[in-house]
Amino acid sequence: MDKTLDFGLLDFCVAEDDSFMQKLVKTMLISLGAKNIRLASDGTEAYELLRIKAPDLIFIDWTMKPTTGIDLVKKIREDSDPIISSVPIIMLTAHSKREFVEKAVIAGANDYLVKPVSPLLLQKRIEAIFKNRIPLSHQPENSTAPLARQRRNNNNLSENDETIEISLDD
Predict the structure, then answer these.
(1) How far is Cα 17 from Cα 65, in angstroms, rounded to an integer?
(2) Which residues touch 118 (CB under 8 Å, ≥6 apart)?
(3) Each residue of 112-123: b (16+ CB within 10 Å) or e?
(4) What is the C-alpha to C-alpha distance for residues 76 and 68, in angstroms, rounded to an integer?
(5) How far is CA 108 from CA 16, 76, 89, in A?
(6) What are the extents of the domains in the chain?
(7) Per CATH, the architecture of 7-138 is what?
(8) SS3 state at 56
């Protein structure tokens, strides 16, 4: 049976200081079927949202003030709450230089996308993060809780949870 990711079961957070980019990413996520999308205009606001309720995935822009995207990634990965520290992170930024990608990977980003990004690429990268994970559209009826709640319940991370599939080729 083919398993496809059900975006409607996921909670997303978009940490982006540019309102146009916020709307663009939100529109792309909605077109994929997402229903739960929270927006933050800087790293500080995004971290506060995470502390209230951890999303299943967070998109983080690099250039934000007062807390930059890379500082937010580090703060998330260093959090004492395993639910927050294990949230998948996709850096979505205009910085395309290798040094930025390397810093993001070292800080703990799961993936790195350079703006502008197409809806298809965004979909593929999200699906790659949740490959062999829940929520999938073909799953038992009793397992429809968003991923963050299920992580909170079983708190078992697979060996793939920290795998980063980013090509650093020039």
Answers:
(1) 8
(2) none
(3) bbebebeeeebb
(4) 12
(5) 18, 9, 8
(6) 7-138
(7) 3-Layer(aba) Sandwich (3.40)
(8) coil
d(CA 20, CA 130): 27
State how far Cα 113 lies from the chain centre.
Answer: 11
pTM of the model: 0.77
Compute the distance between CA of residue 133 and CA of residue 4 in angstroms, rounded to an integer.
11
Residue 34: is its pLDDT beyond 60? yes
Instruction: State residue 5's pLDDT score.
Output: 85
What's the pLDDT at 149?
44
Describe the strand order of the beta sheet including 36-40 as a list of residue ranges: 36-40, 11-15, 57-60, 89-93, 111-114
Q: pLDDT of 60-112, one tens digit each?
A: 999 999 999 999 999 999 999 999 999 999 999 999 999 999 999 999 999 99
Q: Which two tokens stand for residue 140?
A: 């038992």
pLDDT of 12: 98
Round to whole Å and give the CA distance between 130 and 79: 22
130's tokens: 């949740």
